[in-house]
UniProtKB/TrEMBL annotation:
<dbReference type="GO" id="GO:0005886">
    <property type="term" value="C:plasma membrane"/>
</dbReference>
<keyword id="KW-1133">Transmembrane helix</keyword>
<feature type="transmembrane region" description="Helical">
    <location>
        <begin position="111"/>
        <end position="137"/>
    </location>
</feature>
<feature type="transmembrane region" description="Helical">
    <location>
        <begin position="78"/>
        <end position="99"/>
    </location>
</feature>
<comment type="similarity">
    <text>Belongs to the bile acid:sodium symporter (BASS) (TC 2.A.28) family.</text>
</comment>
<keyword id="KW-0812">Transmembrane</keyword>
<feature type="transmembrane region" description="Helical">
    <location>
        <begin position="45"/>
        <end position="66"/>
    </location>
</feature>
<keyword id="KW-0472">Membrane</keyword>
<feature type="transmembrane region" description="Helical">
    <location>
        <begin position="12"/>
        <end position="33"/>
    </location>
</feature>
<protein>
    <submittedName>
        <fullName>NTCP7 protein</fullName>
    </submittedName>
</protein>
<dbReference type="InterPro" id="IPR038770">
    <property type="entry name" value="Na+/solute_symporter_sf"/>
</dbReference>
<feature type="transmembrane region" description="Helical">
    <location>
        <begin position="143"/>
        <end position="165"/>
    </location>
</feature>
<dbReference type="InterPro" id="IPR016833">
    <property type="entry name" value="Put_Na-Bile_cotransptr"/>
</dbReference>
<dbReference type="Pfam" id="PF13593">
    <property type="entry name" value="SBF_like"/>
</dbReference>
Length: 174
């Protein structure tokens, strides 16, 4: 096409490493030394992680829709929501089919874990990656819209499918 661009791979990978990998490594090292104390005190990590996730989702929604450069009409948003729900359901259906085929050695409990875990994508990793890879890009808000929809969609679809998948799993285990 006669045009070229350069991508700062070293900068992107070093930022991703510092943002994602280093905190995980530090957490694993620290956990080893304070495991007994944590088991005695039992801090409310579930509530803390839910609050942090909610804060990340809230600030990302605010950043996205407060941006005056976002040019997203209602029809386009509805189409995006439809596409994302369709993709999410397709992924869940395909993982269910692959994990329940005749040659599969997965138990029903394994299948449930595969269906939910393999299709799970989180804002807590996706948004920092987008901000690092697309730093300075004026349409970053527009790029983050599908991820902002995908995360709540997987929670909603998962909660709607729990009774059906639970009854399937119970019937297979008998």
């Amino acid at each position: 096409l006669g045009s070229s661009s350069s991508v700062p791979f070293t900068s992107i990978f070093s930022q991703l490493f510092m943002t994602v990998v280093v905190p995980l490594i530090i957490g694993q090292i620290v956990r080893r030394y304070i495991k007994d104390w944590l088991e005695r005190k039992k801090p409310p990590f579930g509530a803390i992680s839910s609050c942090v996730l909610l804060m990340i989702i809230y600030t990302t929604f605010c950043d996205t829709f407060a941006n005056p450069n976002i040019d997203l009409d209602k029809f386009s948003l509805i189409i995006i929501v439809f596409i994302i729900f369709s993709v999410q359901m397709s992924f869940m259906f395909l993982t269910f089919l692959f994990s329940t085929r005749n040659q599969s050695t997965f138990t029903p409990a394994d299948t449930v874990a595969i269906v939910f875990c393999s299709t799970h994508k989180s804002l807590t990793l996706g948004i920092p990656m987008l901000k690092i890879v697309f730093a300075g890009y004026e349409h970053l808000s527009l790029i983050s819209v599908p991820l902002l929809i995908y995360h709540p969609a997987q929670i909603l679809l998962g909660s709607l499918l729990v009774p059906t998948i639970k009854s399937w799993m119970v019937s297979r285990q008998k």
